[in-house]
């Protein structure tokens, strides 16, 4: 038996649901309106055979009498109103309890769910190597980085340049290949690195994955370190200077420990998602490394989230702060 529709009790719960679930059917209703209650039952009954409820998609009930802020944010003027949202963006809406119109919306829901399942199964739009699994409902959007405009400061020129960070190939430190070009970057004069990456489209970032695979010779003072303290900045038109990056308040401060790195040397860093909406660029400032060395090493970077038209978070900001803000 498929679980019933989720009753939304607060704007924060609604915001959380939109972030956690790729496809949401919102049923705006009023308990005093029999037609709106009937519309809810229609989709609940007609999706009993549709797999993925609670993982790929969810049906939510929103009482407009109690949650007027959500009603106003989405311009709901009457009930029943059934809205289909994908990645937080409205893709279809049915007004009234017309069974034919609701059946059309049900069919569109099924197509969206099947597409999302296929996307999840493939992992991303490309078969590139990743050092960690993708968060549910999100894809690898690293290919949206504009490599020609990206800039990496304080890099040792004997190691790879900025392009190797976004390579789709498995790092040589894991593949066992030796003797070729160094497919990683190391800092030069000290342990700090500054990476500026503009994007080809507006992104919503969910997770930053960093792979760092320094050699394990503890007796060598020249062995580079993994990043420890990182500062992230969004929507900068160009790279920052080191002094500027030190002084500016970051969009997010990150402190990594040994336990954050998996067996493939990758740390998956969850981002404060509400702060990483409508992003056209990202600056990654490695402040220091974890250890007593003089250099920091990074083998790969992966950006996980969504590309294309960004979610209209303005609606959410009007109706309540997300958890953790």
TrEMBL record:
<dbReference type="InterPro" id="IPR008979">
    <property type="entry name" value="Galactose-bd-like_sf"/>
</dbReference>
<dbReference type="InterPro" id="IPR037047">
    <property type="entry name" value="PITH_dom_sf"/>
</dbReference>
<keyword id="KW-1015">Disulfide bond</keyword>
<dbReference type="InterPro" id="IPR010400">
    <property type="entry name" value="PITH_dom"/>
</dbReference>
<feature type="domain" description="PITH">
    <location>
        <begin position="130"/>
        <end position="323"/>
    </location>
</feature>
<dbReference type="InterPro" id="IPR013766">
    <property type="entry name" value="Thioredoxin_domain"/>
</dbReference>
<dbReference type="Pfam" id="PF06201">
    <property type="entry name" value="PITH"/>
</dbReference>
<dbReference type="Pfam" id="PF00085">
    <property type="entry name" value="Thioredoxin"/>
</dbReference>
<protein>
    <submittedName>
        <fullName>PITH domain-containing protein</fullName>
    </submittedName>
</protein>
<dbReference type="GO" id="GO:0005737">
    <property type="term" value="C:cytoplasm"/>
</dbReference>
<comment type="similarity">
    <text>Belongs to the thioredoxin family.</text>
</comment>
<dbReference type="InterPro" id="IPR036249">
    <property type="entry name" value="Thioredoxin-like_sf"/>
</dbReference>
């Amino acid at each position: 038996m498929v679980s019933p529709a989720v009753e939304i009790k607060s704007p924060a719960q609604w915001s959380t649901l939109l972030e956690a679930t790729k496809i949401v059917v919102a049923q705006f209703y009023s308990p005093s309106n029999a037609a709106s209650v009937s519309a809810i039952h229609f989709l609940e009954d007609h999706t009993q055979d549709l797999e993925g409820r609670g993982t790929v998609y969810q049906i939510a009930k929103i009482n407009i009498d109690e949650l007027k802020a959500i009603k106003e944010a989405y311009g709901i003027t009457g009930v029943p109103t059934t809205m289909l949202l994908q990645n937080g963006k409205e893709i279809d809406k049915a007004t009234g309890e017309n069974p034919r119109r609701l059946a059309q919306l049900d069919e569109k829901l099924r197509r969206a769910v099947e597409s999302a399942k296929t996307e999840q199964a493939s992992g991303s739009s490309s078969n590139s190597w990743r050092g960690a699994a993708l968060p549910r409902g999100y894809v690898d959007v690293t290919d949206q980085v504009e490599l020609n405009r990206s800039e990496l400061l304080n890099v040792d020129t004997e190691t790879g340049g900025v392009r190797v960070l976004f390579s789709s190939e498995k790092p040589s430190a894991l593949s066992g290949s030796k003797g070729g070009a160094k497919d990683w970057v190391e800092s030069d004069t000290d342990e700090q690195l500054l990476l500026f990456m503009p994007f080809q489209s507006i992104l919503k970032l969910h997770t930053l994955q960093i792979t760092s695979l320094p050699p394990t010779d503890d007796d060598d003072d020249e062995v580079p370190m993994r990043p420890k303290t990182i500062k992230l900045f969004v929507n900068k038109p160009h790279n920052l200077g080191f002094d500027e990056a030190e002084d500016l308040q970051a969009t997010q401060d990150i402190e990594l420990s040994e336990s954050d790195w998996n067996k493939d040397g990758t740390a998956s860093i969850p981002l404060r998602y509400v702060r990483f909406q409508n992003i056209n660029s990202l600056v990654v400032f490695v402040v220091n490394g974890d250890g007593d060395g003089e250099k920091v090493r990074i083998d790969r970077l992966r950006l996980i989230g969504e590309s294309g038209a960004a979610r209209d978070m303005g609606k959410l900001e009007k109706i309540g702060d997300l958890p953790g803000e």
